[in-house]
Amino acid sequence: xxxxxxxxxxxxxxxxxxxxxxxxxxxxxxxxxxxxxxxxxxxxxxxxxxxxxxxxxxxxxxxxxxxxxxxxxxxxxxxxxxxxxxxxxxxxxxxxxxxxxxxxxxxxxxxxxxxxxxxxxxxxxxxxxxxxxxxxxxxxxxxxxxxxxxxxxxxxxxxxxxxxxxxxxxxxxxxxxxxxxxxxxxxxxxxxxxxxxxxxxxxxxxxxxxxxxxxxxxxxxxxxxxxxxxxxxxxxxxxxxxxxxxxxxxxxxxxxxxxxxxxxxxxxxxxxxxxxxxxxxxxxxxxxxxxxxxxxxxxxxxxxxxxxxxxxxxxxxxxxxxxx
Length: 324
Fold this sequence. Notes:
The chain is α/β, with parallel strands linked by helices. The protein has a domain at 3-204 and 268-289: Alpha-Beta Barrel (TIM Barrel). It is 36% helix and 15% strand. An eight-stranded parallel β-sheet has the order 3-4-5-6-7-8-9-10. Helix 1 crosses helix 2 (60-68), helix 3 packs across helix 4 and helix 7 (233-253) packs antiparallel against helix 10 (297-306). The chain is globular.
């Protein structure tokens, strides 16, 4: 396993992290025993960087990780998001207040059975609370020894700059893959401006870039992925062309589509850390195989041309309640 410095920290993380959301039922049923076995296998193979959230499974994810960490805590770097408050309809309605952030950090420590988080991350910019107030509260958690570093998820360039004016922000988490390149419209540049790490989630396009399905009709009728704009009209044709190219490159290299997709993210530089989700040892092993895949300049250009970043979309920032 190769390790790289994470943002401006003094900690070196594995070149590939592990996203734990799927272990708490976000994408169909999960098996706790297999999830713990997957975490242990990841640790044994040198993965020392995991991503979780207080909201995954309403705390289930933290309890699961707590069991897996027994006897291994000092070796593992834990990035935990705050989650967002949800109303009775399931819609988010805040999550950036100092009171909420303090409460959820303390609850996370208790659920994980640890004294200090490595990184505490604001899940969404809260339109009802100035980012300066949210970051100020998180900075106080550092002073109190409850987290070592603080981070942002889904924040736009302006929010990143305003946040760093209050306290150094160690990283940004955002969806990023050959399929979804919004981060190239200013978010990645803002991270590099401050020496921040970038955590890329959804690197397999919610399973599509792994070749798990080829059209929305392949999914169950109630699967939310059917509604993705990537599967509507001309966008569906572009998505199919991208997946076909990924599958062709995979055949040429004796790899899987998932490995090629993750290798594309790895090729974006050491500051970009993919955190593919895996809830089984089989998928984990497949993901880790991406570390052995070398994409050529021609491979990268071929994929980039099929789904380029769209500058007209502007910088992305997901906020509680919608997109700004």
